[in-house]
Structures are given as C-alpha cells and as structure tokens.
Amino acid sequence: MSRSLSKGPYVDGKLLKKVGGKKPDDAGVIKTWARRSMIPPEFVGFKFGVYNGRQHIEVLVTEDMVGHRLGEFSPTKKFLRHGGKIQKELEQKQKEAEIAAAQAAKTASDAAKK
C-alpha cells in the first residue's frame, strides 16, 4: 500500500544529510542500507551503493527513478534460469554449435595461411 498523502514520502534523514550541499561529481558512491527510502529529485545524478543483503550494488539515480524506492534497483534474489530437460538440451545444442563454429573458423584461418 502506498503511504498516506498527509504524511508525504519517506526519505531517510541520514541520506539527506549525506547528499545535502554536495555535487554529484564530488560525492562518489554513497553506501546505504535504507532500501525503503524514496528517491526525491535532490538525489538525481548521485551514485548510491544500495545493500541487497550480501553486497552494495551501485545505482546511478536518474530522473525516471524519482518517486521509486532505492530497494527496487538492488535485487535481493539472483535469478538463475527456468527449465529442465528441454532447457538443458537446448543449451547442449548451443554449445555444440559454438564449438563447430570455432573449429570452422580455425580451419579457415589455417587454410588462408597456406
């Protein structure tokens, strides 16, 4: 649910202090754990290191991100892939095609040298 309009957007006070009075070029990467903090227009141009539970992921704030939360741009789960047997078969065929292409390129270069 969205936050009440009478309360206004939530922005972490520590982040505002870190950004206040600085230019985006001089600040460098600002590390933060405040994933729930909204992105106000003052953050545009700054780089934030948003913690995802394991590491800080660098996020460059643009105008399109204003109104969203910092945590939206630092995923906490790593997507591996979907699939089962069919997916494995497709990957195996792709590897075989890459190997065949590499061998063909090698033979073509050897023939050109002779």
From TrEMBL:
<dbReference type="InterPro" id="IPR020934">
    <property type="entry name" value="Ribosomal_uS19_CS"/>
</dbReference>
<dbReference type="GO" id="GO:0015935">
    <property type="term" value="C:small ribosomal subunit"/>
</dbReference>
<dbReference type="GO" id="GO:0005737">
    <property type="term" value="C:cytoplasm"/>
</dbReference>
<keyword id="KW-0689">Ribosomal protein</keyword>
<dbReference type="GO" id="GO:0003735">
    <property type="term" value="F:structural constituent of ribosome"/>
</dbReference>
<comment type="similarity">
    <text>Belongs to the universal ribosomal protein uS19 family.</text>
</comment>
<dbReference type="GO" id="GO:0006412">
    <property type="term" value="P:translation"/>
</dbReference>
<dbReference type="InterPro" id="IPR002222">
    <property type="entry name" value="Ribosomal_uS19"/>
</dbReference>
<protein>
    <recommendedName>
        <fullName>Small ribosomal subunit protein uS19</fullName>
    </recommendedName>
</protein>
<comment type="function">
    <text>Protein S19 forms a complex with S13 that binds strongly to the 16S ribosomal RNA.</text>
</comment>
<keyword id="KW-0699">rRNA-binding</keyword>
<dbReference type="InterPro" id="IPR005732">
    <property type="entry name" value="Ribosomal_uS19_bac-type"/>
</dbReference>
<keyword id="KW-0687">Ribonucleoprotein</keyword>
<dbReference type="GO" id="GO:0019843">
    <property type="term" value="F:rRNA binding"/>
</dbReference>
<dbReference type="GO" id="GO:0000028">
    <property type="term" value="P:ribosomal small subunit assembly"/>
</dbReference>
<dbReference type="Pfam" id="PF00203">
    <property type="entry name" value="Ribosomal_S19"/>
</dbReference>
<dbReference type="InterPro" id="IPR023575">
    <property type="entry name" value="Ribosomal_uS19_SF"/>
</dbReference>
<keyword id="KW-0694">RNA-binding</keyword>
